Amino acid sequence: METVSENRAFGGVQGVYRHASTACGCDMTFAVYLPPEAEDGPVPCLWYLSGLTCTHENAMTKAGAQGFAADYGLALVFPDTSPRGPGVADDEAYDLGQGAGFYVDATEAPWAPHFRMESYVTEELAQLVAAEFPVDPGRFGITGHSMGGHGALTLAMRHPERYASLSALAPIAHPAGSDWGQKQLGAYLGANASVWAEHDAALLLRSRGWHGEILVDQGSDDQFIDLLQPEALAAALAETRTPHMMRIQPGYDHSYFFVASVIEEHIAWHAARL
Amino acid sequence: METVSENRAFGGVQGVYRHASTACGCDMTFAVYLPPEAEDGPVPCLWYLSGLTCTHENAMTKAGAQGFAADYGLALVFPDTSPRGPGVADDEAYDLGQGAGFYVDATEAPWAPHFRMESYVTEELAQLVAAEFPVDPGRFGITGHSMGGHGALTLAMRHPERYASLSALAPIAHPAGSDWGQKQLGAYLGANASVWAEHDAALLLRSRGWHGEILVDQGSDDQFIDLLQPEALAAALAETRTPHMMRIQPGYDHSYFFVASVIEEHIAWHAARL
């Protein structure tokens, strides 16, 4: 693992690191924020998964999360959203290929050799972060925005032993029933809709459920709300009687201004449960 | 004035606007954050001037200021750092021309026709913001980072009737004695060093002084600290016995991670004095 940069932030350290990923078969870049408390021993750790077109950098610079992570004594991890590089398959569309990994392990050509973001996030990077940083792997939480909200919800429900707390911001809630999902799940996993159901938050909640509580925030004026389908997740949360807090926040859109406006409450939510 | 975008943020509105500037002779873009309190009437307003290479956007997206502005009931204004456009003079260097206006009114060719950032910020944009937004022009404060810290300090001391409170983050403190300043003040204002002294924070503090208190924050590990020369400002503050708080913060560098780490204290500082 190589250090790309480290900056003092809120008494802790915001770092960017690069490593050769076995899961993705390419170099991967990620960011870790360590709060001041990490100097005294392992701290709980919140994983933040980003949305379409993002890298490790967007949330690191625009979510305003580090100050609250310092207040609550949480580390933050910002993975990239896909494998990258000249040898990695890509597509001209912004919502497929590089920058759009959808947090699945692809089985279809040309994606299968590198697009293994589920294994990367939940196994390889989780182990690397636990080995290299003063974080407690028994106290990992996960959240994310948009495609990353989809990733947080589905990875948590598929790997409940890995994550102790869960929230999502404007998640793609029902990709198997949306143009943000059918295209990508079809490309990465093939045409079988029963496979897609294993990577769809609203459907997974009904099939596997979640062992804890879930916090979901969604802006009422989100320009992509018809693609996100929060109503599918709300119905599944209510009908499965899963302990949760689901909010439609009036006036907010899909931007990082929304993420920044609610990130403190998400960090506090995870801190209270880790 | 034209609205480029408006996003709900922390219960208020983060807007970006464009207008035809008389002072600069080109279209100028700026950002305004209005806190929820602005719905009930005029609020005090903090002007944030940005550094080299920045536009209105950098601090708007990376400083994490809006949440604290909402908490303290302050509006924020983020001007651009120079005139821009194909008809505007420029230089290949990152630190001269577009993106590097240095908050002066240029008198020299080829800069004089457009590079009038002092008049633009202190007069034209101040009047526009006061006319178009629910802010109280009697309660304007000013701050900024790097070149923008230079701008905040020098514009406040040159226009004390305009600004009631003042702070700076990692400011270019003594441009008349630094490679970050001599080149630009020479290009924009000519070779006469006595003219430069009228745009140098450390020198202005000795010649004109400031009617209030000044807060200055500087990172100890700032990679540009030799260009910024905080020691010149510290000496001037102490020797003129100007009420102030000057801090060298251990471990911080010149990045927005430093700005974000201390912005709450700057907003609180201005709120208490506006």
UniProtKB/TrEMBL annotation, chains A, B:
Query: Keywords for this entry?
Result: Hydrolase, Serine esterase
Function statement = Serine hydrolase involved in the detoxification of formaldehyde.
Q: Write down the chemical reaction(s) this protein catalyses.
A: S-formylglutathione + H2O = formate + glutathione + H(+)
EC number assigned by the record? 3.1.2.12
Q: Which gene encodes it?
A: fghA
| Annotated GO MF terms | hydrolase activity
User: What is the name of the protein in this document?
Assistant: S-formylglutathione hydrolase
Please state which protein family the record places this protein in: Belongs to the esterase D family.
One Pfam family of this protein, by short name?
Answer: Esterase
Source species: Paralimibaculum aggregatum
